[in-house]
Amino acid sequence: MHMKETKLTLESGETFYGNSPEWQEKINYGEVVFTTGMTGYVETLTDPSYADQIIVFTYPLIGNYGVMSDKTWESSKIHAAGVIVSELAPFHSHSKAEKSLLQWLKEQKVPIISNVDTRTLTLKIRKKGVVPAAICDKLETPKDFIDPNTLDLVAKVSTKEPKVYGSGSKKIIAVDCGIKENILRCLLKFDVKVKVVPFDYDYTNEEYDGLFLSNGPGDPANCIETISVLKKALANKKPTFGICLGAQLLSLAIGAKTYKLPYGHRAQNQPTIHSETNKCYLTTQNHGFAVDEATLPNDWRVSFKHLNDDSVQGIEHKEKPFFAVQFHPEANPGPVDTYWLFESFIKMIDDEKRN
What we know:
- This protein is of the alpha/beta class.
- It has helices at 41-45, 101-108, 118-128, 153-157, 181-187, 224-234, 245-253, 340-354; strands spanning 3-10, 15-21, 28-35, 53-57, 61-62, 82-84, 87-88, 112-113, 131-137, 163-165, 170-175, 192-197, 210-213, 240-243, 258-274, 279-291, 300-306, 312-317, 322-325.
- A ten-stranded mixed beta sheet has the order 10-12-11-13-14-19-18-17-15-16, with helices on both faces. Strands 2-1-9-3-4-6-8 form a seven-stranded mixed beta sheet. The chain has a two-stranded parallel sheet with strand order 5-7.
- Helix 6 (224-234) crosses helix 7.
- It is globular, with a radius of gyration of 20 Å.
């Protein structure tokens, strides 16, 4: 493994030095964020919600079990703009591994920098917040830092044409803002047919039994077309379920506001509490924005909250079959403790069909 000296330069001026493979070229820009998960780097890197972000893995050793087939991925490619690790495993060991992490990153043309003091870097982000950054050679000087949240990232990762999955009796429209594959796997366990549509697709004149709003990258306020269609769709009172960005889009569609978190929630061990039962769940999360509780309309309530910072983790209508959560009940990686939310969504559809 031939490596060269490289660096991570933050827009705020700080520089962290490390090593990168010799094949790595040019200056690579993105928003530097951190995730505290111990495993799941393959699922994390292929999650479209990480589009244009440079991911700092806080767990010290990354790459030790290699990369398995694309059947375990959350999309068809890596969406992250770069990878930062403390120690890159020189060897990997897993019976189903097909290649090393470094080989995979080379194939996908995604930069990595190892031997970085990720603890200090993470503490810096926790203190000052996420920031645009660049991975480059030691003597290069990055200039054009870009905040990816100002870009139309959802348009970048969304499907271009509608696609249909399954052949069940209940039809679900799934708005693809960067949908994870495991969300589809979870939905298709039920008697459903899922039509995945682009983020700006107008589905309001179609027949369907339930509406699903997917996860995705960036600032939800940029999704003007998605929110506009959603406002019309809510008038139909069809059961509606949102995850992550989907929760933020639902909030904006009903007149609430969102705001950017200092460093977000990214891990597989985020504690949330269910307001109705006072039961705590460990959840997988990946988001940098949150819903402003004070701006929710009176006919809505908070269904989940984050135990670390009290931020909104779920909302639901007090009467209509509309709800959404900020975390990922489909997991991959992470716990499946809240998988029952998919069951609740299907039950809502069944109840509406009976009525």
